[in-house]
Amino acid sequence: MFAPRAIVSPLTRAAFRPQTIRVAARPAYFRIQAAFNSTISEAITHDHRELKTYYNEIVDNPDDIDHITRYGNQFTWELARHSVAEELLVYPAMEKYMGEKGKQHAESDRKQHHEVKILLKEFQNMDPASSTYIPKLKEIWSLLERHIAEEEKDDLPALEQALSSEKNRGNSQSLAKNFARTKAFVPSRSHPSAGENPYFEGPMGMLAAPIDHIADIFRKFPDGTISPNPSKK
């Protein structure tokens, strides 16, 4: 019988224990973007700043269709992976280490993610030349910006405090490592129908990710960025 727990639990449990990770040189698609000595807060905040950069590249260059096509793909690629990795690893960690408060934070964050993912799915399927392309991105960012502010002001400091005890020493760094590794294997497009529960989203993601990753090879991305296809096409 199909058992989602058997698929997701090892990945989730790995986030909660320190571990030594050896990473061989790999193509850009498999690079781990967060520094291995960073905390989970630093890794997530880094992603937030990257997303802001990609957003600005689009809204500041509305007449350059090739440019906004590349950065639209980059924005989608980063946000989709970031969101799923948080749902698989970070929100369960909040529930584990922060008790009832963590459960409340995680549930609120999952609801916000779902709203963003619905809009992101619409955005990723739009023609960058469409007059509604940038307005749709701005609609996404208006929700995402509030979510980021709450996460950085409330959620992440509370999680770091919970992880600062002697018995949890090193867990923030371990969680950051697993967060970076997880982003290499999750879907790179938005799939809101998969939900935000790790026991269902994990198996669904394993089905969707290979299709997304193959399609990414044929999409345009900005030159010099860490992406599946930093082409000059």
From TrEMBL:
Protein name (database record): Hemerythrin-like domain-containing protein
The residue ranges of the Hemerythrin-like domain are: 39-159
InterPro entries to which the protein is assigned, alphabetical: Hemerythrin-like (IPR012312)
